[in-house]
Amino acid sequence: MRVAYFPFTQEAADQVRKAGFSLESLLDKSSFASVRNRAADRVLGSLRGEIPDNRPRREAENFVELFSYPLSRLIVSCLNDDYLIRRYVLAEAKLAYKRMQSEKEEIIFLANDLGLHPLHSAETFRVHFSEYIKAAHHMRSPKWKLINRDLKDGYLTITAEELMRLMQELVRDRIIKGLPVPLEDELCKSLNEYIIPLRLELDKLRSKQNLNLIRVEEEAYPPCIKALMAQIFAGQNPAHSARFALTSFLLKINMSPDQVVTLFNNSPDFDEEQTRYQVKHISGSSGTMYKPPSCGAMMTYGNCVGKDNLCKMISHPLGYYQRKIKLGN
Ligand code: SF4
Fold first, then answer.
1. C-alpha to C-alpha distance for 151 and 162, rounded to whole angstroms
2. Would you state the pLDDT for residue 79?
């Protein structure tokens, strides 16, 4: 396995350990500056949406790629921000997925390292259901549900593409484990040269989102919808009932399914395939356009927040919106 391509693996961790470099030398020595730069580059990439895929071609580059991963975890831990952690984990998992596409001969080794033991048969793979459930439990689209898979003798059949998608989920679970790493302030201070610009970038991203939020607040959305938008922009993952309420409301006031999908792109756990499926479904692709829940239903599910005076005069978030529009916001 090209260990440096997949630096989150056990094998990679073993190689790092065996190399025996002290943390102090990695943080201080000028010969490790390229490792520190690549570590910061990984974090910056995750803030900008994608870690640059610098494929190591020479031994020295393998070294940089391999050691930059644990160091990037330290940088993320020093920044200690939940939103950044989720973005970073997702970006690392996406980078791994991208590399799997061109390293298909490594797939079985990598799957084994992640705790999956697929059996290769012709064009497909067979995976034991217990391992499948472990990998697919976050996947929301119905095609991943066990009842929608053909299950025989405890195994189900998946394509190579599906296997890599499952592995991406396991990579995410592996990377998020242990983050943030508890660290001494002194250690973070020694990384200030990298941390300060990254914190500025993180602040810039947050203020951009706040601007979006202000724009939203100027409009006629009711308090519950504003609160849900705020959660999305803050990088949180609202509960299923809340996502449904937000999606159905926005579609009803004529936001296009594509616009709604783009909005959810603000969430660090964004999965375009799942989100598109759900939004399309709510918009009526299966023949029924779902109505947004009433205020009563919003209260039942804990999605009614911060009632204002207008809330007292309506029984549906759409009624709030329409009145506010009539009143000229
Ligand atoms: S009363 Fe209705 S419109 Fe107002 S916040 Fe609650 S659910 Fe939203």
1. 15
2. 95
Tens of pLDDT, residue by residue over 146-186, are: 888 989 999 999 999 999 999 999 999 999 999 999 999 99
Cα(296) to centroid of ligand 1, in Å? 9
> 258 and 160 in one domain?
no
Which CATH number belongs to the domain containing residue 149 in this structure?
A: 1.20.930
Is 200 part of any domain? no
Strand partners for 155:
128, 152
Q: How far is the CA of 309 from the centre of ligand 1 (A)?
A: 10
Residues of the chain falling short of pLDDT 70? 140-141, 208-218, 266-269, 328-329
For residues 274 and 143, give the distance between their C-alpha atoms in angstroms, rounded to a whole number.
10
Q: Residue of the nearest CA to atom 2 in ligand 1? A: 295
**Ligand 1, atom 6, residue with closest C-alpha:** 304
Closest residue by CA, ligand 1 atom 3: 317
Question: 259 alpha carbon to ligand 1 midpoint, in Å?
Answer: 23
Ligand 1 pocket (Cβ < 6 Å) reads 222-224, 295, 298, 304-305, 307, 311, 317, 320
- What is the span of the domain harbouring residue 95? 3-188
Ligand 1 geometric centre to CA of 302 (Å): 11
If you count DSSP H runs as helices and E runs as strands, how many of each does the chain have, helices first? 16, 4
The three-state secondary structure class of 137 is coil
Q: Which atom of ligand 1 is nearest to the CA of 320?
A: 3
Q: Compute, in angstroms, the gap from residue 310 CA to the centroid of ligand 1.
A: 9
**171 and 23 in a common domain:** yes
Question: Do 300 and 242 form a contact (C-beta atoms < 8 A)?
Answer: no
Residues 6+ apart with CB under 8 A from 318: 249, 252, 253, 292
Total-model pTM: 0.72
In this structure, are 170 and 277 located in the same domain?
Answer: no
pLDDT digits (tens, 9 = 90+) for 89-130: 989 999 999 999 988 888 999 999 999 999 988 889 999 999
